[in-house]
Amino acid sequence: MSSVDVAALEEALRTAVDGEIRFDAGSRGAYVTDGSNYRQVPIGVVVPRSVEAGARTVAVCARFGAPVLSRGGGTSLAGQATNAAVVIDWTKYCHALVSVDPDARTCVVEPGIVLDELNRRLSDHRLQFGPKPSTHSHCALGGMIGNNSCGASAQAYGKTIDNVRRLEILTYDGLRTWVGPTGEAERARIAAEGGRKAGLYAGLDRIVAEYLGDIRRGFPRIPRRVSGYNLDSLLPENGFDVAKALVGSEGTLVTVLRAELDLVPVPSRQSLLVLGYDDICAAADDVPRLLELCSPGQLEALDGRMAQLMREEGAYLDSLRVLPAGDSWLMVQFIGDSRQDVDAQAHALLAAVGRHEEDADVAFSDDPEREQKMLKAREAGLGVTARPPDGRETWEGWEDSAVPPERLGDYLRDLKALFEEFGYDHPSLYGHFGQGCVHTRIPFALKTAEGVADFRRFLERAADLVASYGGSLSGEHGDGQSRGELLTRMFGERLVTAFGETKRLFDPDDRMNPGKVVDPHPVDGQLRLGPAWRPAAPTTHFDYPEDEHSFTRAVMRCVGIGNCRGHSGGVMCPSYRATREEEHSTRGRARLLFEMLGGHADSAITEGWRSTEVKDALDLCLACKGCKSDCPVNVDMATYKAEFLSHHYEGRLRPAAHYSLGWLPLWARLSRLSPALVNAVLHAPGVSALGKRLAGVARERQAPAFARQSFLQWWRERETAGEPDPGDPLTVVLWPDTFTTYFHPSIAVSAVRVLEDAGFEVAVPDGPVCCGLTWISTGQLDVAERVLRRTLRVLRPYLEAGTPVIGLEPSCTAVFRSDAVELMSEDQDVKRLAGQVRTFAEQLVHHAPEGWRPPSLPRRALVQTHCHQHAVMKFDADRELMRRAGLDADVLDEGCCGLAGNFGFESDHYGLSMDVGEQGVLPAVRAASPGSLVLADGFSCRTQIEQGGTGRRALHLAEALALGLDGNLPGRQPERLSRRPEPPSRTARWTATAGAAALTAAAVAAAGRGALGLRRAP
């Protein structure tokens, strides 16, 4: 990098390339690592807007001698997607499905297309790309080709290499051509044409001829050999297939511009048979027998250690519940044309092995939903094992070795013995056992010199072990830096020399992803941690009780899995889905926070908490908390954002929205002086626009109208027999959150009706209370803590009596369950409140007096779950309550609504807010039938739906049930019966404008008279 004129390179790229040229510190910090143990700061990042622009990027880099790294989903586990190079991120724009030939079952794709998206676009043809790694929601086809990806489905369809027909490639020195199988006649034609391509083919011919015997003898004949260059694809008997030879070369030889792929039919039916065993070695021993007796679509394994981790973490419990007896399991999937076909295959295998479907150690399903539950436990392996509850950090490095399936059991015993020798206690063992591939994560001590030395020694010993079994260092994840240095132990000197000659043939100056596979960096070099890593240990507001009270350890939760780059399903990560930007993904933000801690001298982020780059990345975080539940390692970026903002603005002026929206609870209470006047001013022509501008609020947003009578005012005027006894088991405290109390009080009124109908005695706090949410989300954590302490004093009688506190607004309820505990982890009242707060549905489903039934609501309902409820409280109780009420609920899985509290109201965020909403929630509401209910418990969700051009108004579940108490609902738009504050009349709005104008004129006149008086004064 020191020899590259970086400034001139950047300028040349900006001039020549149609793309986003990013040499800023934030972009470089976001791409500093992948899913591996390694870390290298890029020269810069280019996001080409077309394949042609990507090719021009390589050409410009070649002029300057700058290294190049092509990157897809960035999930590589061996370090092949991190380098001191110009990183080309193909995923934002270069994701076209160029063509499909359904008859030939082929397609042509650009390198940035994500696997799930490709298969979605192919679904009309009932075709799919066969290999399906566990990262299928976000891995790109270019990365799959570079890595020779596999996944569980490779049992049926082979590795990526087995499904690639041709590649359009670009060499660093400018040769652009299609390559594939090359017969004698085609090779003669290429030779006759001369030029760089002829030289390449002649060179490959020479390498194959010189090392012919080594290639035939030295490549393990096993299903999962992913290590090394695929020189065996160039053998005469394999058709001299240059495309297949380049698959798995990890961007070290060529840049892939397009690919022609083979496709397979989507199976009509599937079934899954799960067999229990006493231990994982016994399960492995049985694999050869099962393979002799059937031809499964998948044959996966899961051990008892992983099941234990899932139980301890409270993760994937539904999956565990459907597993049969045993301490390890083999999952055998069958594919076929009919249910009878797949059922027959499963029962034939059971009969052959002497087991029965009714046995305790057997589970069988031909129900797709139940199958997915079973398989989800296996697919979740990386996330579950990355951060075990015992506090150990586990790492890749020996996470995908492969051996002949018939020798798998013995290999596992020897591998476990090696773990024991090095003191690596109980790593989980799982993986694609039908093909002899073993996954694990090992508690390497990568922060000390001794631990790193042990890491190296273990890898060397493990490499020798797998080679002794005729296996492969990598059975799926490639070599990169993790295994590049070890290839000689597997292939021998001559074949590794052949790999080097192949590298020099394609890339003589070593500019294509240098330091990987060939002439590799050491396995213990460029570590993300390492003995020289010295991060800051900042004092924080949040206590991070689940991360050893360390912000640094909390940030290190992210291991680069990349689920936050998924395009659909769940909530995480709305800003990435709308922008397709790495730095606006949970992973990208975590990378920048890691760099901000300053553990490495070469970090691009140098200003700590004052970093503009980190602030800009966090600025588009919606603080939806989706990552807290959807991320396999439970990164909580909303909390990290609040922490960062608190330090970033300490002692400095904050954005206007932090005062206008962050202090909303105070302004809401002040609105009681004259809500009608406040509403008129907030909606007055001219005045409203000026106010929004001063407040940092988007001009497109309508200010929600304050209710004329708040819930607290209604409550105080209500005739009651006095406050209920806090110790009465039927007493509940209804939490009067700001949004419900001052904007939508009918929700709280409805909740009182329903709770009392269920037999509860309702109490409401008699002093001003608030959860502090708006101060937390804007990083005003000192204020939030003071507000919470005052609230705890007011609630103390109820906390001491153990009275349930019922939350109606999910974001406020989530504060009590999660944020408050992390902010004040040693406060006993906070812990009591966290244990006593319940959602409205939880109270009615789990604690209502026996015999109570909710009112009948035989109606379809479209339901949007608030992101914080999805992340913290979950939605199970709500589903059950709706079921009991007779609601036919369609609970959306479209992600965040986009408003996200203050986020969507802020002037700089309106566009993104609407983009997020339009990705699923808003179109779904528009498509809802007029007679269906639209339900959304979150104030943000209801506001976005109402202001998002849907023509509908969403109700809280409490309102719907209260309407059910009243009887039949109207046939169309039943929400018309709900009571919402009406915006001020046109007359009131213009009166407010006129009043403001008059006040302004009077003030100007007074100022003028004052100035004139001063001028006349002697």
| Overall pLDDT metric | 94
Note the main sheet: 5 strands, antiparallel
Please report which band the strand proportion falls in: under 5%, 5-15%, 15-25%, 25-35%, 35-45% or over 45%: 5-15%
Strand tally, please?
A: 24
Task: Give me the side-by-side strand order of the main sheet.
Answer: 5-6-10-8-9
Whole-Å distance between the termini?
73 Å
**Unreliable stretches covering 5 or more consecutive residues:** 1010-1018
Q: What structural class do helix, strand and pairing data support?
A: alpha/beta
Helices, by number, come to 45
**Basic shape:** globular
Percentage of helical residues?
40-55%
Work out the radius of gyration: 31 Å
Structure description:
- The strands form 7 sheets. The chain has a 5-stranded antiparallel beta sheet with strand order 5-6-10-8-9. A 4-stranded mixed beta sheet has the order 1-2-4-3, with helices on one face. Strands 13-14-12-15 form a 4-stranded antiparallel beta sheet, sandwiched between helices.
- It contains 45 helices and 24 strands.
- With 1018 residues, it is an alpha/beta fold.
- The radius of gyration is 31 Å and the shape is globular.
- The longest helix has 31 residues.
